[in-house]
Amino acid sequence: MSATDRTAPIVELRGIRKSFGELEVLRGIDLEIFAGEHVVIFGPSGSGKSTVLRSINLLEPPTSGSLKVAGVEYGPGVPGEKAGRRGKPLELRRTVGMVFQQFNLFPHLTALDNVALPLRSVRGVRRADAQVRSAEALRRVGLLQRAAHYPQQLSGGQQQRVAIARALALDPKVMLFDEPTSALDPELVGEVLKTMREVAETGMTMVVVTHELSFAREIGDLNVFMEDGVVVDSGPRGFFEETTSPRAREFIMAVR
Amino acid sequence: MYDWGLIWQHHGILVNGLLVAFKVSLFALVISVVGGLALAMMRMSRPPVSWIAVAYINIFRGVPALVSVIWVYFGVSLLLGVDFSVFEAGVIALSLLYSAFMAEIFRSALSAIPNGHREAGHALGMRPIRVFFSVILPQAVKIALPNIGSMFIGMLKDTSTFTVIGLLEVVRVTQNLVSQTFQPFVLYTAAAAIYVIAAFLIDLVFRLIEGAYASPPRGAVSRLLRSRRQRRIQSLMAELGS
């Protein structure tokens, strides 16, 4: 779908493990994502796919393993390996954007100010410039006319598109989508997928956790099937038809 | 028998008493909002910091205003060797007590904000302090406002106990008038009415503030407050939309 730079991965996970108390939800994840690539992570609930996504911006810091984003290393590191210099989570999050299942717009701010607040506080953009840039970001997702509305006055689909605009306005190198359509009424799913498709066409590196397998088929340059905290199988375009993993096949059949 | 004309005759002094009570409460309100917020944040952080807040809250919620003001005016002043004025003592006493109540109000308001908002702020790369002040606190204050209003009414009523240290608030003023006129029924009825009216007015003001900060705006006041901003957005929309 898009030209990907294959020289060095922009996101690299090595041996990522994560435990919540006794429960180990990630049991060693290795993943390489190249710039411009669109990665789809899917699998049954509880498989750890959201946790993988949330470890990429350290919202869920891994218990062990190494995370490398845009050449900078984060996380506690792989056991037995010499620990090098580690980047700060704040810097990482300024290169990685995220879209949540529950949108998480700030309800006390208008759509415009939802986009403008992080622009001002993260990028230090002046108020007037931030407003112009925010309006442009809203226009890109087709919501300029809703700029003065509060989240409560927007449909779920519109809220999610504002959330996408808010993340995009900060010019991230990678965009993470955590089940972006799962909380939406069925008739609103289409508009959000359309917006995501448009983001994909700009060449943005995307990692998408989703149950929308037809959308996944369409954009997935790399498709990752997870279960019980491990990657069971992964593959390029055509993965959904060609995977030899019985569990992946079974899941794909069941979701369809 | 009952000389109701006395109320009008002395309305100046009575209103003055209310103003004194109001002033003490207002100072104490500001201090206890700040103090309560600080305590709430301590209460929600890790031990041992949270223990300090828990201890403070549980002790000062249990002290009656009367005891508090006597303790401050006659006790603490002696201990520190500072002579508090009755006004200062009243403010300090109320602030000590109501910080504890405010802490609990803020704690429940802060924990009512979905964690997703905090996460979204962090994921956007905002500093935790900025997330707190720009995302969490504005929402929490809105939730806390009605309760803060109730606390303010409580403070105003509690100033009536400061009559013991001679603060010229409503009750003290009334007592003085009764000793001159021997009309306790009339004058205490007036005092009670003053408190009721004051409480009603405070409630009204807090409702107005609440409405003003509602999102989306609710009512004329909040629309007016945000009209400039809305106009700016409209002009941006027109500019970029064409």
How are the secondary structure elements laid out?
The complex is a heterodimer of chains A (256) and B (242).
Chain A: E1 11-20, E2 23-33, E3 38-42, H1 49-56, E4 64-69, E5 72-77, H2 89-93, E6 96-99, H3 111-123, H4 127-140, H5 156-168, E7 174-178, H6 186-201, E8 205-209, H7 213-219, E9 222-227, E10 230-235, H8 239-242, H9 246-255
Parallel strand pairs in A: 3-8, 3-9, 6-7, 7-8
Antiparallel strand pairs in A: 1-2, 1-4, 4-5, 9-10
Chain B: H1 5-9, H2 11-43, H3 49-61, H4 65-80, H5 86-111, H6 115-123, H7 128-158, H8 170-181, H9 184-212, H10 219-225, H11 227-241
Structure summarized in a few sentences:
Chain A is of the alpha/beta class. Chain A is 35% helix and 25% strand.
Provide structural commentary.
The complex is a heterodimer of chains A (256) and B (242). Chain A has 256 residues and is α/β, with parallel strands linked by helices. Helices cover 35% and strands 25% of the residues of chain A. Chain A contains 9 helices and 10 strands. A 6-stranded mixed sheet of chain A has the order 6-7-8-3-9-10, sandwiched between helices. A 4-stranded antiparallel sheet of chain A has the order 2-1-4-5, covered by helices on one side. In chain A, a hairpin with a 2-residue loop joins strand 4 (64-69) and strand 5 (72-77). The longest helix of chain A has 16 residues, at 186-201. The radius of gyration of chain A is 18 Å and the shape is globular. By secondary structure, chain B is mostly helical. Chain B has one domain (5-217): MetI-like (MetI-like fold, Orthogonal Bundle). Chain B is built from 11 helices and no strands. In chain B, helix 2 packs antiparallel against helix 3, helix 5 crosses helix 7 and helix 6 packs antiparallel against helix 7. Chains A and B meet through strand 6, helix 3, helix 4 and helix 5 of A and helix 6, helix 7 and helix 11 of B.
